Each structure stands twice: as structure tokens, then as C-alpha cells.
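Structure first, sequence second, as always.
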């Protein structure tokens, strides 16, 4: 999320459920594994348009993960339990 807030693309471990939940492959980042990590990193270095697009898309989705938004959602959920 920190990289996205700087409009930078991300490459994530395709086996990490937490990252896969946040990142959409080829939209807001790239999925990688041991065998293709170097290829995915090379793509970002060689394909400026792809790198910019992934960073921009990530930035647009990063607002969903701000602490203020998360806290507000939790607060709403907890208040609904009191009713």
C-alpha cells in the first residue's frame, strides 16, 4: 500500500493470500514466484507504460486501505451490534 501511495507498481508473491487479496494481477501489480521474479521485475524496468499503469491503478485502490477508512468501517460494524 505504501508503494501504491507513491504511484509505484508492486510485485507480490503469488502464494501469499494476504497480498493476492490486495493486488489484482496485471491491474494493480504483478504476481511472481521464484521462477519468474526476475522476469516480472524486468518487465517493470523495460515497460514504462505498464509500470505507470500499475502504479496509477494501485494508487487509485490504496484509499480503500487507509487507517481512517478501516477504522470507520470497524466502528460502523461494532455500532450495528449494539442495535
Amino acid at each position: 500500500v505504501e508503494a501504491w501511495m507513491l504511484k509505484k507498481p508492486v510485485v507480490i508473491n503469488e502464494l501469499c493470500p494476504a497480498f493476492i487479496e490486495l493486488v489484482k494481477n496485471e491491474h494493480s501489480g504483478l504476481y511472481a514466484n521464484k521462477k519468474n521474479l526476475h522476469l516480472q521485475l524486468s518487465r517493470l524496468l523495460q515497460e514504462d507504460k505498464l509500470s505507470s499503469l500499475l502504479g496509477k491503478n494501485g494508487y487509485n485502490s490504496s484509499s480503500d486501505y487507509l487507517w481512517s477508512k478501516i477504522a470507520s468501517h470497524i466502528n460502523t460494524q461494532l455500532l450495528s451490534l449494539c442495535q
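Margin note: The helical segments are 2-5, 17-22, 37-46, 48-62, 67-81.
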